[in-house]
Design brief:
Two copies of one chain form a homodimer. Chain A has two domains: 1-135, Cytidine Deaminase, domain 2 (3-Layer(aba) Sandwich); 142-353, 3-Layer(aba) Sandwich (Dihydrofolate Reductase, subunit A), CATH 3.40.430. In chain A, helix 6 crosses helix 12. In chain A, 30% of the residues lie in helices and 23% in strands. In chain A, strand 8, helix 8 and strand 9 form a beta-alpha-beta unit. Chain A is an alpha/beta fold.
């Protein structure tokens, strides 16, 4: 299963909106076939692995198939993988986690068992979920998994008072941040950051065959039509204001303007994430300023923090998230650290909302 | 040598102002004696190990002696360890680092070599220095090694605006913090923290046979005579103000008031650390508020940060260190991360001023 997970890791940047899946077929203690999900429209991992075995002249009959996600059981752009497996008749199928798609969940495995194939589940469940947490979130709760990237000093300062911020964390941290951009379906920022920094919002420090979509939260539709982010990558602007002329001009540049007012002059952020879920967005990478960060946290839109800290103290300077003054720590949203590591001269801390993770974990925990 | 380091670790809380030293004697691939430095006035590690070998009926002649610090060569409260080694005549002595004491540095090893004993140096140098960084700092530069403990949210907030701070980090982090208090020679805070929190400033969450000294920076000598920290543990109050009557009353409670004005109404902080070095203080654990922290950082008195971060974001709240507004990141004192780990639900980051560490490392790097 670890090998299957590693195969899925390799297609991290390319399968969206489909899940990243790896499959390894083992017979007589030899790998006779392996594969990972191809870009949308292409074959799924199981079919790639079955074809690989075939091309090697190996028979899958009696073999064990390891797959990181329950094989699909419905016709999408490709025929169901369960059918392909039933045709090959392995002795055993080992599945890391269930497919949260209600069309699939458990049904595929039931058909395999009915055909006499042994099915085992739950192997490396957490690793498999981490690989497709966004896909599972979209299927299960209808909205993407959202992480917020922060880069700051050890005392949480993101920029000097004069706005000089670009180099608080080092090159390795920036490159690592681009890995997270590259795996996401969309990179989201606020109009404040666009006006202040004119970011490109694309993946540059790592190689990727696919650029994520761009999203700007821009309540007043202030986006300058000269912004560097306007480079023909599909872009969504969420706004609370109607300006048909500007929207039409932006449409010519592959930009769609979506009006989602919250009735108080701002964008309805929870509605925005539901809209993104409906539009096939699995994972959102937020890289914004302290104002939008604060709003997203207050509205409970963030599942995970991806925090890079530089070994400096800055004292009086801009923070990472503007939040209301609290009277008690009981009112604080608590995250749970999951991963702590050095990245170049900086450190990276990941922390998630455990209840959000556990709800998804439960959704894909197949009762063996 | 690792075993010798582990023996020295076990006396972490008890040898001050002497260094923590471990010694292991090996012959024919068997440990025939081992020991660590006893509390001040008691025997040093080498003598404990030699006596251990003797009590086991083993002869050290021809053996290899591993010791984490160069054996002493001068009469202090105990006779020189070099003499004891020359009497036992091992074939080889392996030393992790030199003794920065100018009375010793290299001379002890020269005497061993002159007697025909093979001497190897520099094994596990960094680990050995970490164990006695304060002793080396005091010997080499005349002032203690100073670390600053910080406990904050992921965005560097140490307390809510209403002062509610006590539980930002969890129990495990607090207990770990007490391990650092316990190894220090002195715990230092500011009068602001005393007035706000009335801390006890002692070691409670770990067992220790020795309480560190207490130090309060109190420019105006405002210390309430009812403060909980006044519990007969030797305490130093550094002040810029003369008040002989209050000083006399405090003297009855094991408190010494030291006047070190900087001429601007504050305590001369660099002079304070030199004074501490002259008074046998190897390691200082700073646990103070953002005002004193800021002053200590501005005056370049801090060698290391010991930062505990809780997985929460607090936004608008008190910081960990009040620092002047910077115009450029080039003006920032850079630390270097050395150690990142989870501690209960929190994480602990250690970062040091690399040039300070390297200066000490050079001082104890014996040229073999």
């Amino acid at each position: 299963m670890r090998h299957a997970l590693a195969l899925a890791e390799k297609v991290m940047f390319t399968t969206t909106p489909n899940p990243r899946v790896g499959c390894v077929i083992v017979k007589d203690e030899r790998v006779i076939g392996e594969g990972a999900t191809q870009p949308p429209g292409g074959p799924h991992a199981e079919v790639v692995a079955l074809r690989d075995a075939e091309s090697r002249g190996e028979s899958v009959a009696g073999a064990t198939v390891y797959v990181t996600l329950e094989p699909c059981n419905h016709f999408g752009r490709t025929p169901p993988c369960v059918n392909a497996l039933l045709a090959a008749m392995p002795a055993r199928v080992v599945v890391a986690m269930g497919d949260p798609n209600p069309l699939v969940n458990g049904h595929g495995l039931a058909r395999l068992r009915a055909a006499g194939i042994t099915v085992d589940t739950g192997v490396c469940l957490d690793e498999a979920l981490a690989l497709n947490v966004g896909f599972v979130a979209r299927m299960h709760r209808g909205s993407p998994w959202v992480w917020m990237k922060l880069a700051s000093s050890l005392d949480g300062r993101s920029a000097l008072h004069n706005g000089k911020s670009q180099w608080i964390t080092g090159e390795a941290a920036r490159a690592d941040g681009h890995v997270w951009r590259a795996r996401s379906c969309a990179v989201l920022t606020g109009i404040g950051t666009v006006l202040a920094d004119d970011p490109q919002m694309n993946v540059r420090h790592v190689a990727t065959p696919r650029q994520p979509r761009k999203i700007v939260v821009d309540a007043q539709l202030l986006l300058p039509e000269t912004a560097r982010l306007l480079d023909d990558t599909p872009t969504w602007i969420f706004t609370a204001r109607t300006d048909a002329a500007k929207a039409a001009r932006l449409a010519d540049r592959n930009v769609q303007v979506i009006e989602l007012p919250d009735g108080r002059g701002k964008v309805d952020l929870p509605a925005m994430f539901r809209w993104l879920g409906e539009n096939d967005i699995n994972e959102v990478h937020v890289e914004a300023g302290e104002k939008l960060n604060g709003s997203l946290l207050r509205e409970d839109c963030i599942d995970e923090l991806l925090s890079y800290l530089a070994p400096v103290l800055l004292g009086d300077a801009a923070g990472v998230a503007r939040l209301p003054v609290l009277e008690s720590l009981d009112d604080v949203r608590r995250f749970a650290f999951t991963d702590v590591m050095a990245v170049g001269q900086d450190v990276r801390l990941r922390a998630r909302v455990d209840e959000n993770w556990l709800a998804l974990r439960e959704a894909v925990s197949l009762l063996g």
